[in-house]
Design brief:
It is built from eight helices and no strands. It is mainly α. It folds into two domains: 78 residues, Rna Polymerase Sigma Factor, Chain: A; 72 residues, Winged helix-like DNA-binding domain superfamily/Winged helix DNA-binding domain (Arc Repressor Mutant, subunit A), CATH 1.10.10. Helix 3 packs across helix 4 and helix 7 packs across helix 8. The protein is elongated, with a radius of gyration of 17 Å.
Length: 159
C-alpha cells in the first residue's frame, strides 16, 4: 500500500477518527497531530500487517495509541468537555453529561464513550484496547452503574 493509498483510506474515514479523537483529546490541533502521526505509522508499518481484513482495526488502534501518547505528553487527562459526535444535547444536558462522564475513571469512561458516543461494538472495543470482551462488558456495566448513581445524586440535590 502506497502512502497516497493510506492517505486516501484515512481521508475517507476522517469523520470517524475525529469522533474518536474528540473522546480523548477535545482539541482539533491535537486530533490533527494524532491523525497525521497515524498515517505515517500506518504507512511505515503496513508491511507488518498480516491480514488486510484487519486494516481498519489496526489503524484505529494506532490512532487511539497516538491520542493516548498526546495525552501523556500534555501531562493531564481532560476528556469530553465538548464532544461533537452527532448527538444533540442542550447546553445544560451537555454540561451535566460531560461532568458525569468526567467523574468516571479513565478505564470506565473510555469504554462507555467508545460504545455510546463513537458507536463501536464490544468486540471492536476489545480489539482496540487490547482487553478481553468480558472486561469491556464489565467496565461498561460498572461505568453505567456509576453514572446512574451519580445521576440519582444529582436529582436528589435538585429536589
Amino acid at each position: 500500500m502506497s502512502l497516497e493509498e493510506v492517505i486516501d483510506w484515512m481521508d475517507a474515514r476522517k469523520d470517524k477518527y475525529y469522533r474518536i479523537g474528540w473522546v480523548y483529546l477535545k482539541s482539533t490541533q491535537d486530533i490533527e497531530d494524532a491523525f497525521h502521526n497515524t498515517i505515517l505509522k500506518a504507512y511505515e508499518n503496513i508491511k507488518n500487517l498480516r491480514r488486510l481484513e484487519s486494516l481498519e482495526a489496526w489503524i484505529t488502534k494506532i490512532f487511539i495509541n497516538e491520542c493516548r501518547a498526546i495525552i501523556k505528553k500534555r501531562g493531564k487527562l481532560e476528556l469530553l468537555e465538548s464532544v461533537d459526535v452527532g448527538i444533540s444535547f442542550t447546553d445544560t444536558d451537555h454540561l451535566e453529561l460531560s461532568e458525569l462522564l468526567n467523574s468516571l475513571d479513565l478505564a470506565h469512561r473510555e469504554v462507555v464513550m467508545l460504545k455510546y458516543l463513537a458507536g463501536y461494538p464490544l468486540n471492536e472495543i476489545a480489539q482496540l484496547l487490547d482487553i478481553p470482551v468480558g472486561t469491556v462488558k464489565s467496565r461498561i456495566h460498572r461505568g453505567l452503574r456509576l453514572l446512574r448513581v451519580s445521576m440519582e445524586k444529582e436529582v436528589q440535590y435538585e429536589l
